[in-house]
Amino acid sequence: MHIRRIAAVLAASFTLGLPAWAQQVIASAASPGKVIAVEVQLDNGGKLAYTVKRRGKDIISPSRLGFNLANAPKLDGGFTLRDKAVSEHDATWEQPWGERQFVRNHYRELRVELEQPNRGKRRLAVVFRIYDDGIGFRYEFPDQPQLRDAEILDELTEFTVAQPATAWWMPAGELPGLEEEIRKSPLAEIGIANTPLTVRLDDGTHVAFHEAALVDYASMWLRKVDGQKLRAMLAPSSHGPAVVRHGAFTTPWRTMQIADNAAGLYMSDLVLNLNEPNKLGDVSWVKPSKFVGVWWEMHLQSGTWNAGPKHAANTANTKRYIDFAAKNGFRGVLVEGWNRGWESDWGHGGADFSFTESYPDFDLPALASYAKSKGVRLIGHHETGANLPAYEKQMDAAYRLYAKHGVDSVKSGYVHDAGTMQFAGSDGKVYYGHYDSQDGVRHFLKAVTEAAKYRIAVDTHEPIKDTGLRRTYPNWMSREGARGVEYNAWGNPPNSVDHEAKLVFTRMLSGPMDYTPGVLSLVGAEGKVFNSTQAKQLANFVVIYSPLAMAADLPENYEKYPAAFKFIRDVPTDWADTRVIDGAVGEYATIARKDRNSKDWYVGAVTDGNARTLALPLSFLDAGKTYVAEIYRDGDGADYRSERRFDLVVEKRNVTAKDVLQLKLAPGGGQAIRFAPQR
User: Fold this and answer.
1) Catalytic pick among 115, 486, 500, 630
2) What's the whole-model pTM score?
């Protein structure tokens, strides 16, 4: 028995390539509710590792920590413990806008300070924040003469998933703007993945890998090393190490949201909590709202961005949208294609764009004034073609022009092929690289902070992924960052029928998405058909969160379907509370949200290609009150694969918190409900 026990210990101990008796736990801590525990280890060569357990069960097996440097020996091995400390933090903060008004930030922090005595006494700290619903950890580089300039080739950070797992993921380093389709595969078979990367362990536990507070650093990709061992891979630079920093700095947080199920992942505020508080001060000028715009007709090929006989962004057409917005309670009108430069090969350069000169048939001052007289705001548009030097030269003047005319939000675009974003080098030359490299990360934040000087909010398309910076810079309201509804117009291929059910528990774990929902016509260019029912288009306004939400369809289509359009007019975009009732990645999701400006609740439910009946307990409603439920559901014969996709039933019934509704969703369908207290 004694020999067998030793053999078992040896067999289980070679994760780090060294025997177990050489691995020493140097620090440990558990979450406030003792749900999640972290241990930090050093082996007999001074290599650093960590483990994560949840309720005593392994989630992350021993996984390496450290760095490869370009200008110095690697920060790996030879470490000794200098100091360690555990502290606890518990506070509640208020969001100026968001999915819930108040956010609790309760964690235990484990700080481990290390030194390499035989390598110039270089120092490094690793800080873990341990929540009941996950962990975040980051590295801290102190200011030290022996490593004043850190040139980081790559991280050695690992995530060794302890149980067999299924992954939902998007490839990294491929299409810009994170617009690859979301794939499902065994975790051991993924390639290089972007984050959030969502996995379901064999025991049902769900883990989402991501990062928080990505500032002046390269984005983290994850590549499979061996089995289920993932290693951080920094988005490469085209002109040197992935990251170059001077003096003291911290890395972004490496995060793991951990829950019993998919719904629990979405309910976590861990990524937001790991960001710094608001740095902008008074942000009452940031206005969550819905908008319409001169956009969808170009995707339908009935209008063009560039000047000519079919130019959509002309004064008369824009006035038509302003009138429609004013009549139906939309705050904004987006206008794409208003500025000079669209005739060029802008998708491969963008050098000819002017961000201050309108086409002759677009009168910006007159339209801004007309919109204001109607209680509407124009929403600006800056398509850069990913030419950052050209855009940054004009950025201040462009924002100043918009501020002058009362344009208080801008949709920006960075259309380009993978790896071809243009940057200005310190030598004055232009070079090409990845949009999520350190240089790209710097630019996207610069665009937001410069906009804030003019009290302008930003909605970024083809963006860097969201890492919770909307807490620190609340004018960064939304972004694209996945395949939006325009893919249904092009149809090459259209978004899959399970697309929204995937988005909720993958992409949406990072933050808001400008998904451009609400196309009631269910048809794209040349008659291409959506994989959706009309009820699902309504549900998407609740399920796919964005504080700036576009009702994407043409005004004439909304007038054609007034019953469905009523829900789009009514649904808000700013919430006091959010509850994920149930869901499974890629299968279905049901979400309830409470309006921040009334006592109304809204529910959205979506499914994949399978018909489903989902139970909706109404316990989130106030006890003792009667509510009128205004239900927008799939008709009994609705089906996304036929003309029955337009079958929509609108009905009302009285309900209380004690009731349980049965939501019947058609194949490719959904359901949207408004609950208003009975007067």
Assistant:
1) 486
2) 0.95
